[in-house]
């Protein structure tokens, strides 16, 4: 996508794989300085930093759990220490722990809500002050499941619907500070998360997608890049559905 974000500093949570990795690459190609977080695989993160640096991108990897409030603060501080501002925050890290309600454990509930929703709160709160000073944009990754619901995903759907209410509220709080807060809600995307689906489930999903295919991670990343670009300066509190027509 032809967007110039030279001089922007960007922080993407969960940036080593899947959609997060595509977002990192998209911002790097747009000329931004890119920091990304990862939970455990240091070798994967180092390889990605090397790849980005070879392309001429100023890159930073940060290890830790997004559910940890202190980790979020230290990651945002590290970005601001290095680049002075944080212009774009993309809350992408997310997990699933699926199961019908009857079998879902308290641990399944807490793990998903802590990562997917508290993680978004943690990073947005840490970014609040730096962004209040110089403006910026926050883009949170929800899911079609947050709008439509899905049997076996009460925890995941609650976390992703929570992101929508959170983002609209924060958009109202931060609008006067020139900070936009938006949501990208993907349908089903080709990543490790959907690799786990069996053939029958995959087929029944595709039956509901008018475009008759899963999304490429790049197609989600381009929507994120658009919302972070000057072309979207007057868009806030919006949920951009990128789902092949699965939900209209
Ligand atoms: P993925 O499993 O491929 O990658 C998730 C990333 O998040 C990884 O880098 C992982 O390390 C990181 N992560 C997970 N828990 C973390 C934690 N506690 N702390 C720090 N990092 C953590 O997933 P994906 O498919 O690329 O999904 C990315 C986002 O998009 C998620 O929020 C997911 O819910 C959402 N989403 C995915 C799909 C899909 O079809 N894949 C559809 C809709 C929404």
Describe this entry's structure for a reader.
The chain has helices at residues 18-29, 42-54, 69-83, 106-134, 144-148, 154-174, 192-195, 199-206, 217-228; strands at 9-12, 33-38, 59-63, 88-91, 136-141, 179-186, 239-242. With 248 residues, it is of the alpha/beta class. Strands 3-2-1-4-5-6-7 form a 7-stranded parallel beta sheet, with helices on both faces. Helix 2 (42-54) links the parallel strand 2 (33-38) and strand 3 (59-63). It binds nicotinamide-adenine-dinucleotide (NAD). Nicotinamide-adenine-dinucleotide binds at residues 13-14, 16-20, 37-39, 65-67, 92-95, 115, 141, 143, 186, 188-189, 191-194.
Instruction: Bin the strand percentage.
Output: 5-15%
Order of helices and strands: EHEHEHEHEHHEHHHE
Q: Count of DSSP E strands? A: 7
CATH fold-level assignment: Rossmann fold
Q: Mind telling me which CATH architecture this is?
A: 3-Layer(aba) Sandwich
In what order do the strands lie side by side in the largest sheet?
Answer: 3-2-1-4-5-6-7
Shape assignment: globular
Low-confidence stretches: none
What is this entry, summarized?
Helix content is 48%, strand content 15%. The protein contains 9 helices and 7 strands; from the N terminus they run βαβαβαβαβααβαααβ. Strands 3-2-1-4-5-6-7 form a 7-stranded parallel sheet, with helices on both faces.
């Amino acid at each position: 996508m032809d967007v110039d974000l030279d001089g922007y500093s960007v922080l993407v949570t969960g940036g080593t794989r899947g959609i997060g990795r595509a977002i990192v690459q998209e911002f790097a190609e747009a000329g931004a300085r890119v920091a990304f977080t990862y939970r455990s695989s240091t070798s994967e993160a180092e390889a990605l930093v090397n790849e980005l640096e070879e392309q001429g991108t100023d890159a930073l990897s940060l290890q830790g759990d997004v559910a940890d409030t202190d980790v979020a603060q230290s990651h945002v501080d590290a970005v601001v220490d290095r680049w002075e501002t944080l212009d774009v925050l993309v809350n992408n890290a997310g997990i699933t722990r699926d199961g019908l309600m009857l079998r879902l454990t308290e641990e399944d509930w807490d793990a998903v809500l802590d990562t997917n929703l508290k993680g978004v709160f943690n990073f947005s709160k840490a970014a609040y002050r730096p962004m209040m000073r110089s403006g910026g944009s926050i883009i949170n990754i929800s899911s079609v499941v947050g709008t439509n619901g899905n049997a076996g995903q009460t925890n995941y759907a609650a976390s992703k619907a929570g992101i929508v209410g959170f983002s609209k509220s924060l958009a109202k709080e931060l609008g006067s500070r020139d900070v936009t807060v938006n949501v990208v809600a993907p349908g089903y995307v080709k990543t490790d998360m959907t690799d786990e689906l069996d053939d029958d489930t995959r087929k029944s999903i595709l039956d509901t997608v008018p475009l008759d295919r899963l999304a490429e991670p790049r197609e989600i990343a381009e929507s994120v890049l658009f919302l972070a670009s000057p072309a979207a300066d007057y868009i806030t509190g919006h949920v951009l559905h990128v789902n092949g027509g699965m939900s209209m």
